[in-house]
Amino acid sequence: MLTQIRGMSVIYLLISISIVVAVAFFIAFIVAVKSGQYDDDYTPSVRILFDDEIKKTKNNIIQTTEEKQI
Amino acid sequence: MRIDNCFHCGLDIIEEEQIIFDEKGFCCNGCKTVYEIFSLNDLTCYYDFEKSPGATPLDINGKYDFLDNETIVSKLLEFQENDTAIVSLNIPHIHCSSCIWILENLSRLQNGISTSQVNFPEKTVRVIFNPEKVTLKSIVCLLSLIGYEPYISLENYETGKQNIDRSLTYKLGLAFFCFGNIMLLSFPEYFEIKEFWLDNYRPFFRWLIFALSLPAFFYSASGYYVSAYKSIKSRMLNIDIPIALGIVIFFIRSTFDIIMDYGSGFFDSLTGLIFFMLLGKMFQIKTYSFLSFERDFKSYFPIAITKINENNSEESIPVYDIEKGNRLLIRNQELIPVDGILISDKAEIDYSFVTGEAIPITKKSGDKIFAGGKQIGKVIEMEVLHTISQSYLTQLWSNDVFQKKVEQKHKNITDRISRYFTPILLLIAFLGFGYWIFIDANIAFNVFTAVLIVACPCALALTAPFTMGNVLRILGKQKFYLKNALVIEQLAKVDTIVFDKTGTITTNKKSNISYEGETLSEENLVIVKNVLRASNHPLSRMLYDFLPEMKRIKLEDFEEITGKGIRAKIGDNQIQIGSGDFVLNGYPIKGESDKSEDAIFQTAVHIKINEKYCGKFIFNNQYREGLSALFRDLSHNYQIKVLSGDNEGERSALENLLPKGTELVFNQKPEQKLEFIKKLQEEGKNVMMVGDGLNDSGALAQSNIGISISENVNVFSPACDAILDANEFQKMNYFLKLSKKAITTIKMSFVLSLLYNLVGLSFAVTGNLLPLVAAIIMPLSTITIVSFVTLMSNYYAKNLKK
Lengths: 70, 802
Hints:
- The complex is a heterodimer of chains A (70) and B (802).
- Chain A has 70 residues and is mainly alpha-helical.
- Helices cover 53% and strands 0% of the residues of chain A.
- In chain B, helix 15 (441-454) packs antiparallel against helix 27 and helix 16 (458-477) packs parallel to helix 28.
- Chain B has a 7-stranded mixed sheet, with helices on both faces.
- In chain B, 44% of the residues lie in helices and 16% in strands.
- Chains A and B meet through helix 2 and helix 3 of A and helix 2, helix 4, strand 5, helix 7 and helix 8 of B.
């Protein structure tokens, strides 16, 4: 009986940790919003498809997905 | 490789003008130059992302000289230090991934630019550069050179960095965080199994839940308390009162429950409710960030103008610094920013945007010219009479209409319903309380709070945002951009539609020219065309473009008489082209007398060859496609009126085109248009104004709903409630119908949510509302309501006749 109760107190620790983790993610979200990441949700999706280096040959044509009509 | 379309801009290539470069066909030198720049800098990837993404660069000679002025530049910059400066430029041409790519690679084209970042939805590029190495002017010129000319207007002056309001995102994120965690922590309680460990840890769980609900209750829901307080103060019952009341009762009751150890409280439903309602608010806000609905003359006006100093040197000065008596230089296509007197010999001024007059006006030296007109043709000089704030055009903005807040104008449908809802709700709560108080005081308290909790008009409050938000998106896809969701309700209420003529039901793009009189021989046509070629008068230019391509002959004698016409000599032929008075010398034309009234107002160019009158070219307005069909459909349900700043010349043409009973009013000044709308409103009409130019802006602001028609939605449109792409003009009836259906959908969904409330209330008044029941009913009603309104509005959008 006694061991059972002592074993159960670990739940305080577990719940506290889980809340701390959740709060950490929440803070990350706030920081992301504050830095303006959510202001433009379209351009980054296009930008990520560009190659870093500029090719001198134009042989491989990059097909982009259908354009969003604005 | 297809040759018929320009490799750079995609326009059709006229065969004789085609330029072949690097095995690719271009329509003009400008396009070729852009390609050359890109290929020299290894930037031809530009053409890989999108086919023919470019725009032909326009001639910008001298246009951006004002950027040499330090004070103007510093007002445009967002940030400036020794070796770093940041500027955000609005570029209307941004439309595809190629645009993003090339603009973000600007640093490769211009030394001194460190980074550039595109915001696609806003159509802006943010450039960080080193002002010691490169000037703002050279960046702007570079952009113009590659076909991405920035739009710089007075609006950009002194704006600096705007603060973006992100509080709704924070509130929503916080509510979701609280809601999710509370849901997880409440799970053990849902099953309420009498277990040893559960009983042991119950207080810990409950107080943790309580702590988690605090931020949602105090911060996320704060908007509702404020709004409820305001509406009580102004003695109007809006929907936020029962919502705020519900939330507060929810919280008090739940806190009471855990303190007294009666149960776990309703914190899960409480935070869930806050979350869903904020989600609805978020969904309703669909902003078209590349559009602006609040524009006044400022975004139409240039930021600077060329001033001529006393020693004849030229200088760019900000338009706000213009003083009375200054001498200004106005170039081709430049806007006249202030009222003044023309010094140069003559000027052709296009007032179409200000007065609605379609044809440019000729002014002579010494004539008064008004702000807002566009100079066409040669460079002119003028002397300033009034400063910018005292000019005729800008004074329109001091009218009261522009001062009042739009939000105050109408009361929305949810608020109207809640006027009945709130008293009934309170009545039920008190009746339940009154009944139970004689049996058990504890239950009576429970019932009272349970009624207010369960009837909290969550579903009711969600209906409108989700329907409107959805319709807003559907309309936006069809190029009808609304300022906000409230506009839909206003659209549905409209019973009178007032159209502006020039630019709204006619297009500015092309004029329809017809010929009346003796048929001109081929030989005579060649003569006419060649005479016109020498003239710079706008009508001559239009007619010249209209006549077919012909061979060129040398003029022997040419004389242009300002405001009258041209006298010229080719070979042995004497030609006179021009206004009626000038060509006819007062002699009436045969057969003209019977319809002389029309003829007076007509815009026409008369032709006389060798002292013999031939006939006249008449400039008709080109009406939009589908105009008469649209008016016929609209006239079944709406009163239609047409206002015009133009003269009566088109009256008979319009009467033929439009259904009988359409009221036509001509010669309307901007203030008269405003008064016209006001008068209709005083008669109890809900007026929708459809206009396009600055001359309509007063009427657009005064009307219940102002729609501005725009050939190019990115450029200027006056302040309004909605912007409609000119190509979708004929769909207007469909948009109006859809808005009515949106209101029907909302009403149906209100019935549905009332049914839910009845079920919930039956639990509540009998004193049986368990946390678990609340936790089921609440999300269930939310989900069904949201899916119902989405499905219905999509169904209507698809099945209504376009």
